[in-house]
Amino acid sequence: xxxxxxxxxxxxxxxxxxxxxxxxxxxxxxxxxxxxxxxxxxxxxxxxxxxxxxxxxxxxxxxxxxxxxxxxxxxxxxxxxxxxxxxxxxxxxxxxxxxxxxxxxxxxxxxxxxxxxxxxxxxxxxxxxxxxxxxxxxxxxxxxxxxxxxxxxxxxxxx
Length: 159
What we know:
Strand order of the largest sheet: 1-2-3-4-5-7-6
Low-confidence stretches: none
Number of strands: 7
Number of helices: 4
Largest sheet: 7 strands, mixed
Structural class: alpha+beta
């Protein structure tokens, strides 16, 4: 059974050890870097919630979720007062088992509880050319909105 667990000092090493396939490494930051970025965001009074994705107590993936944006950043229109899936990955050994979609459904359910504030949508971005990410987000009910950020396509799902 898939579940989301907050990252703590007890599970951070196993989250850092997760890897995407070699062909995906140019599209996804290493988890250690993403965890550091989340820490920096938090120290700057921004929201960054980190989750491990677990299947029957075995870690299979990692998520960072944020809410809203600082006003001084150039971000897509959907970003204001909505949730942003900043980082979402499934370890290469566990891909193509449906864990990503199950985790996304749990994450959407979590966002609908408004843990950081009310929202009408969530969004993510993926590197142009990352066909796997595009297909994954489409299967999870996301649709491109025509915007780009950081050279990546923006994809949105209503909550």
